[in-house]
Write a structure and sequence with these properties.
- The chain is an alpha+beta fold.
- The chain folds into 3 domains: 37 residues; 82 residues, Lipocalin, CATH 2.40.128.50; 197 residues, no CATH class.
- The protein is 22% helix and 34% strand.
- It has 5 helices and 22 strands.
- Strands 3-4-5-6-7-8-9-10 form an 8-stranded antiparallel beta barrel.
- β3 and β4 form a beta hairpin.
- The longest helix has 54 residues.
- The N and C termini lie far apart (126 Å).
């Protein structure tokens, strides 16, 4: 049995050439070429010497050529299968996304139409009936704002003094002052029930009434004091006429005065000196005239400032000087008011103009050339959120201090509005 020296293939008996590699059966072994590792163009038929025809062996070359189409077929099949899966996933994803979108739109429509406590339930409600409710004496208002958080419940009792408390609400309950009140919405009506009692509200488009105080429980004007500075010593009369009731006076009026006497006006007759010294008919000296009273005034808080209790002194020093008080007058103001204001978390402060002077009228004879009347109304604020919210929208007050020319009358006072 013979083998080819070139490729090692078995030779047919009597063969002159190797059927595998074409080498001469008796020729020397030739080194193998790495032609099989690379794609090759088909080889033309070769005509060996001796006139004998044969074809170049194709086995090694054809194997890679057959592998490539097979790989392409496998890849194409894989792509077709994967494409189907990808399209199926895309269809599922679009279906789920569309369902979620439609559900979101439906929920939004339901919310906006009031089904889930939306905008139809928001607004101002006025009490119209309920257990032991007398609309002639009491007014209760409930305002539902925003998304049900941070709402405010407005109310006033018999004395018409307004207050407010935070309220949280949802479809079934309203939480007020730590208590849960059952809420029943029916059209434009809302019924609140708690511990066997109920209060019925009707939704209203009317604006919330302004904060005011009435004759039954008026605020007190504390320590208004009056200074008189003539250019030369002169005798004068000064009359006060108050919308309300005078509670304290010093020195006594010319008409006399006894504590507890129901009076709203009176007159002082004094001799005034340029340094501010005042002398009554008995020869007693004073540096000011003093009165206090319950004043029927709706104080104006449309302008002002929200001030931290710890910063009250600095704020008042600036504000009092801007309105024309001297250092001594401002010192006396601060000595009286600071102990009542510094301990509050915040103070809403507004210096009154016409709201005060129109209800506490002063008239002097002879008339002064310059009149400076400084009256502060303030409201303690313990809730920081409420204080900051008021501060963001409250316009600041501006002051112009008048020049002190000729006979000058100066007054300062204040009140706390609860």
């Amino acid at each position: 049995m013979a083998f080819c020296r070139n490729c090692g293939a078995q030779l047919a008996e009597g063969a002159a050439f190797c059927n595998n590699c074409g080498a001469a059966a008796g020729g020397p072994a030739q080194p193998q070429q790495p032609a099989q590792m690379q794609p090759q163009m088909p080889q033309p038929q070769m005509q060996p010497q001796g006139g004998m025809q044969f074809q170049q062996p194709q086995q090694a070359v054809q194997q890679p050529q057959q592998a490539v189409p097979q790989m392409q077929q496998d890849w194409q099949a894989q792509q077709q299968t994967g494409g189907k899966k990808s399209k199926k996933g895309l269809i599922i994803g679009l279906s789920v996304g569309g369902t979620v979108l439609i559900a979101g739109i439906v929920l939004l429509i339901l919310f906006l139409t009031g089904v889930f406590g939306g905008s139809k339930k928001e607004g101002l409600y006025k009490a119209v009936g309920g257990d032991d409710f007398d609309p002639s004496e009491e007014q209760y208002y409930l305002e539902l704002l925003g998304d049900g958080c941070g709402n405010v419940y407005y109310y006033n009792a018999y004395w018409e003094e307004w207050e407010s408390e935070p309220v949280n609400w949802n479809d079934d309950n309203i939480f007020y002052d730590g208590e849960r009140l059952s809420a029943n919405f029916s059209g434009s009506r809302l019924t609140l029930s708690y511990d066997g009692y109920s209060l019925v509200f009707e939704k209203t488009d009317d604006p919330l009434p302004e904060i005011s105080q009435s004759v039954d429980n008026p605020p007190v004007s504390y320590k208004p004091v009056i200074y008189l500075y003539p250019e030369e010593e002169l005798q004068l009369t000064l009359q006060i006429d108050l919308d309300g009731r005078l509670t304290h006076i010093y020195p006594a009026f010319d008409e006399g005065y006894a504590y507890g006497k129901d009076m709203s006006s009176g007159t002082w007759t004094v001799t005034a000196r340029p340094d501010g010294t005042l002398i009554d008919g008995n020869g007693k000296t004073y540096y000011c005239l003093f009165w206090e009273g319950e004043q029927n005034t709706a104080y104006d808080f449309s302008e002002g400032a929200v001030v931290k209790g710890s910063e009250t002194a600095a704020f008042l020093e600036h504000a009092l000087a801007a309105q024309g008080l001297s250092e001594r007058e401002a010192n006396e103001f601060l000595i009286y008011w600071l102990p009542q204001m510094e301990g509050n978390a915040y103070n809403l402060i507004s210096f009154q103009q016409d709201a005060y002077t129109d209800t506490a009228r002063l008239s002097a004879n002879p008339s002064p050339d310059t009149v400076i009347r400084v009256f502060m109304a303030y409201m303690p604020l313990e809730d920081e959120t409420e204080a900051l919210a008021i501060s963001e929208t409250l316009p600041a007050q501006t002051f112009t201090a008048p020049g002190r020319e000729g006979f000058t009358l100066v007054e300062w006072g204040g009140t706390e509005v609860k």
